[in-house]
Sequence to fold (178 residues):
Amino acid sequence: MVLLTLLAACLLAQAPVQAPPTGEKLAPYYPTPETIVEKMLELGGLKAGEKLFDLGSGDGRIVIMAARKYHADATGVELDSDLVTGSSARLRQLGLQKSARIIYGDILKQNYSSANVITIYLLPDSNLKVRPVLEATVKKGTRIVAHDFEIGGWTPVNTVTIPDDGEGRSHTLFLYVR
Ligand SMILES: C[S@@+](CC[C@H](N)C(=O)[O-])C[C@H]1O[C@@H](n2cnc3c(N)ncnc32)[C@H](O)[C@@H]1O
Fold:
């Protein structure tokens, strides 16, 4: 028994400790109201079985709605460890582990080649940094929905303004198709 405990302690001591991901904070955490999340997914034309990525997934609300209501396969990417822990726990509580997950990582270091729909709510300068990553990885026909800030240099195929989200705030959504 003592020998086994010692062996386990040695193995644990040798186990690699995973370093937290590094990356530039591209926007503060500022959640999209649920009513607007739905408009984003509608605008993106998300269908059952399609793959959605939310870049900077915050509390996971876009990922959750995509998986629960639209029956999509949804992935969030998030750099903030507390938000990753909270949103991953929520996915487990809701029994969505098979169709939804949160990657603890940097938006700029992912590959989006499997995406059908991508949602993005970052700052204008950040959208410019994300753009080359999308240009390098997404497949033809991928729909990208940006909330409030355009992706500079791209022309949206559709722009929708929601004058009041129920709390007096207006929102603009931009749809791009690559
Ligand atoms: C404005 S919030 C949007 C949250 C969510 N997408 C929504 O619409 O409710 C932006 C999120 O991006 C995350 N973020 C910022 N820079 C990031 C990066 N380099 N990689 C991954 N996540 C990042 C922030 O932590 C924050 O949760």
Q: What stands out?
A: DSSP finds five helices and seven strands in the chain. Residues 58 and 138 are 22 Å apart (CA to CA). The chain has one domain: 34-177. Strands lie at 51-55, 73-78, 100-104, 117-120, 143-147, 158-162, 171-177.
